[in-house]
Design brief:
Strand order of the largest sheet: 9-5-6-7-19-18-17-12
Helix content: 25-40%
Radius of gyration: 26 Å
Largest sheet: 8 strands, antiparallel
Structural class: alpha+beta
Oligomer: single chain
Number of helices: 16
Distance between the termini: 38 Å
Amino acid sequence: MNVALRYLGHSSVVRSTSGTQVHLAPNLARDRVAFDAGVKDPIAFREAMSALHAVVVGDFRFKKRDRTAYDEWRKEKRREEEQLRRQFYDRAREEEAAKLPKGGPPPGLEADFQKMVRLYWDARRKWASDLMRSDPELYRHLVPYDPIITVAPDVVFFEGFAKDESSYGCLFVDRDAFEGHQDAELGTTNVDYSMALYDHFQTLRTYRTTRLQVDPQGFAVKVEGHEDYREEKIDLPPTWLRGFGQISAATSLPAHSLELPVDVVYSILAHLKRNREKTGPRSILFKLSPGRAPVVVLEPWKIEIPSRGRPWDGDKPTDIKVWGRRRLFVLERVLPIADKFEVHLLGSGLPSIWVAHIGPMRFVLALSGWTTNDFTSGTNLDLLAGHLTVDQSVVSAVSRTLRQERSATMTGLMRATSAPRPAVLGALHRLAKHGQAIYDFSAGLYRYRSILDVELGESLLGPEPEELVRGRELFQQKRVKIEREEQIGDARRLIVARVEGTTCETILDGDGVFSRARCPCNHHRQFGLRRGPCRHLLALRLSAQEQSDAGGFFKRLLH
């Protein structure tokens, strides 16, 4: 999908004698949005925004490479560059020293500097445009989609989605975190964001007053003839849009909720930083028992990290595993300023949501089931939504209410739409998946917000893969019969099943990923697992996971 971004100038952090101003240039192609207020705690704001930056630029996909020849080439180039650098430095120093008058720097130095800066940015924009046309995939990796900012009556929040399409970050900032007079115009827009802006964010200090400004001036001038006006068009892949919607929708689904003290999250990250696993399972195991604090187990080392926080309030003991744990390193920046963490677990192998409470701010990190947002993780999330009632009239009523009120509780939406809880929950999931709603855990509110200026319908997201659709249908229609299941070693399982008259088998490793598989269908004979599992293997895996989950999620879904 081609998305037009129109900016007047660039976002920047400007320092002056009166303080620091964080100036964010909004997307002029969208409705007018503005905000201007002082920031009470610049350090906390800086660290939380830096964590969101880590989410946006994060790419944890495995890339296998042989670095031997590259390392040798790099050493040789380093030696050559160092030698050239010394030669040019000595020569330039002598030349500049000869030019410099005794009275000080030459006149016009500042103007020459600004001229060179303009030349640099003109060349950079030209490079970005050429790269976007010649290599869209590389452009997507180097220039992430600009983050989203929403100004609501009670909060201002920023959202971003990772390059590898597996992590979602959102920073909620209560309006109480700002001081002085607040000028605001409610709505959602993209803001111009660059690596240089991230570097400038690091200059925020407590001894300088800081103001956050989403500049409304761009909407009040005739920007067509302005020298700083620029228009960019990027082609967002359907997988990115679908992944953003899916992982946002995960935040609105019922989950096992627990509280972790900061020291537990610190222990998890500290051990993962010092140690590298060589075998599976590479997961975090949560042992949950009613009336007792959660116990976190790091696998495969079997290291238990007990929590001394709030006891879990579930009704029966359960164990839940989550994968892709190294994505949690984006929480490093908020660890020193966090008060506590909440974790919301949908189930083993399903998305997990980590919420860091930072005074009047909440940093939300939502992770897909695996680091790769692949067929199976997408199937799982859509499968959960398949158990919800989706009534188009209820969807329209819920959407209309959220647009008018900007936020609402589940009880308020049920009252406003006169619809039962399952129907409202299904409508909220549909709206979130299509980029129109978001859930705020701490406030317990569903908020209206539009990822783009249009709804993410199937025309934009593209059709789902046929094997994924058929595999989900086979599972939902109970067409899977598991005939044999054996434990192989400590972590792997051999599962043989009959799916719609087809006998297939697979070995799932300790992380629940297909290790080996066999199926007589045409898709598997032609592609194996290279293009994702076939419909029969997908249905088999979903059935195996449902048995291991013991139906816990589905019982919570409608109650």
